[in-house]
């Protein structure tokens, strides 16, 4: 009898121990997973029980929570000018979020450790928990100008503008766009159905082309090739000369690199500034061949490529391309072959030249304030690369890029009374689609307030064979430059 009782007692103790282990596992180890499980209806309702903080830009509210009459959903998210800022704010859906709504979620919903003091005070005073507000670096005038000008092109594309001295993002526009309000409702069926519709669309409205998509940069990349060429020999300058044949033979191949449209570039020997003004291919292919793959790749890295960047959303990696043969180096040096850049990276290149060779870390969040308006955190601009090029090389590049706008392919980017620097680009695509139209720029050239990059996908089909970055993308840039500088 005693042995039977002992066995029963041991079995009970074992089951009790297993029960305690399971309870601790559920409450400690697996708690976060269960809390975030989409089937957790309590979590679903709690997402809408707290008044999330506002997202603002230049004094404008671009996302906010508004109170409802519902017993289940106390607050819903609202987006004034929703499509204009969609890829900046993102959406706040029943089970997920995107862009700033996602990256700053813990601040917006008040659960961040940075808001512990505020939550403690609210608990003591009996006030409900409210999220922090996120103020962005976006300039509403620049954002609207970029959106309107790009939309008028009738094409997909992106515009990103930076303050070259701080790295603050002044405009971030990607088209086509979408309405985040449709993805931020409380009806899961409608929200998920609409998301699936948008995700399946061929033109990818959910894609933020400024940071999540890479493209061949075309001739805008020639400023990087020119930078490497000037850095190799500091005695070189805008009036130095280089060979510019009508076609450049590519090593170990039976093909040659032509200039745009098969045209000649001067008389076969041109100045560096002329080569950039006219965007000749052959002199830049020659520069790439002379410099070699390692020197070219090193120069791209000096402009920030290969370094992880978050703004705070993660940015796709730009890349010069893998090491292949000399012919590939020549093609990559004019922005083709495997060379792939995000619009943000090209804007960073323009900004680095504008800022005397220093590339600043790009960022979107300017300031965080709690529900009472007290500052929680403020942006502290930081350098990403201090010596992308020397200040002397930056000055030479600045002079040549000004000449591109004044005398070369980018005259449509001119702003009356302002010295504008820029570089056009027309990038062939591997899928046989019409070329992309590019433009990078900064202004005023002597004291830059804005640097930017514009890409119009298949933009060279817009007005026929003569369409280039100078015809399609430069006017969009001009509108943004005017919006920033017209204060």
From TrEMBL:
Gene3D superfamilies: DD-peptidase/beta-lactamase superfamily, Penicillin-binding protein 2a (Domain 2)
InterPro entries membership: Beta-lactam/transpept (IPR050515), Beta-lactam/transpept-like (IPR012338), PBPA_dimer (IPR054120), PCN-bd_Tpept (IPR001460)
GO cellular component: plasma membrane
Ranges where the Penicillin-binding protein transpeptidase domain occurs: 157-482
GO biological process: cell wall organization
Keywords: Signal, Transferase
Keyword field contains Transferase: yes
Residues of the signal peptide: 1-28
Domain Penicillin binding protein A dimerisation as annotated: residue spans: 52-134
GO MF entries: penicillin binding; peptidoglycan L,D-transpeptidase activity; transferase activity
Signal is among the record's keywords: yes
PANTHER family the UniProt entry points to: PENICILLIN-BINDING PROTEIN 4B (PTHR30627:SF24), PEPTIDOGLYCAN D,D-TRANSPEPTIDASE (PTHR30627)
Protein name as annotated: Peptidoglycan glycosyltransferase
